[in-house]
Predict the structure.
Amino acid sequence: MAKGNPKKSTKPKVSKAEKEAIKAEIAQLKNSRDYAELAGLLIQAPYKKTATLDWFNKHLPKSEAPIIKIGVKERERFILALIRGDTARAAINELRDLPSLQWKTLFAELAGASTAKATEKLKALKPKDFAAFCTVNGVTPVTSGAKGSISKPKTIPFILKKLETLGEYLKL
Amino acid sequence: MGARRISLVNFKGGVGKTSITVNLAASLARELDQKVLVVDMDPQSNTSIWLMGVPRWNNLNGMDEKSVWGLFHPDSTGLKQCIEEEVLLNEHGVELIPNLDIIPATYKLMDLEHEYQDTDTTPYFVKFRMQLEILFDQYDYIIFDCPPNVFRSTRCAVFSSEEIYIPANPDLLSYVGLSLLSDKIAKFHSLTALHRKHFAGFRPAEIRGIILNAVESGADYAQILDMMSAKIINLRSRQVVSYDADILPTRIRRTVSAAKTQLDALPATLGCGSAGLREDYLNLARYIHNTPLGKKGARYGKR
């Protein structure tokens, strides 16, 4: 029977210099905007809904061992792997949901505009974009016709009312 | 190049200006190896007391020429006398963060608001910056902790800064006043345009974002954050904040240990407070450090 712990003997030996090099590399990767941003987003409630275990493993490079549970260490390993693979920015953009951010931005811009200008801008939106705008900004669109398509003239007054409310807050 | 000069400003008290100043400065100095100078512009002197400890600050209070107050009386003292180079000492008197210095405040700074009068034609904020400019090349960061107003102390800080961050809690009361604050700063910039000619390469301070503080884990802030985002977009379109101003993605959590860091007179980076809180401040430092100001021409454009 072999002496000692068999598990211990199979571990590759890492020299002190190599350990230092790994530590320095991690410190360098951590000292980046992407690391700070992703680490910040992943612990916030709204983004936690998107960042499920499946989401983590979908974004994790194939060379990495899959994540089994989301803890502090796993999050760190995940972010570092993404930065090494140069895919952190893509994950941040997905988390921030840039397409929906676009409609939130438009909503905020319209809140500071006149009713006429807001109406004009809303009318100019394509039907698909108008629907997305309503969904993102929590407006229930009014449908009409046999196909149940969204009626812009009937929906716009509800949007204007919501814009008016936000406009009041923007004055504060 | 010179130091990045950052003011932390908000009308409202209790939003974390001092905590963020101390912990941001400590994280930049200790973890990112930056040479940092903190300038305490708040007569309440909380930052100074935190970084120097009560006994040392008590000794200083009364020797006002060795504080920020000394910068307004350049004939009476040398600038070097105003800088405390040994902050955060342990029980053996050993400096814990050698890269971190402070120009402390004393209660005397309160007199700047009402009793101080310019003795010549140079306004107080120009005098202040002229004194401080000597230090711009000696530090990587100069961070100004401002009082909860936009009176004289804050104006001095703003006139000497290039970047402004607004600490805020995720509540309606922190949101109120953001427009007024940005308008006041824009107005100050326009009123002081003539005085900028004294300084080469002057760049008026831009509001670069909101730092959310005291964020409860798991709480749903969607409504207030949507309002804050809308406000920032609105301010961007009015060109009273930086073109890339936003709510910073790195947030500072609310913890019981946050109060303990003050009681122990230590920043979170020195192991005081929870590991999560320490990481929050470090991430804030990393984010700010890696988000330098854009080129001058990039100001006030479309995102």
Summary: The interface with chain A takes residues 32, 175-179, 215, 217-222, 225-227, 229-231, 233-234, 237-238, 248-251, 275, 279-280, 283-284, 286-287, 289-291 of chain B (CB under 8 Å). The CA atoms of residues 38 and 284 of chain B lie 17 Å apart.
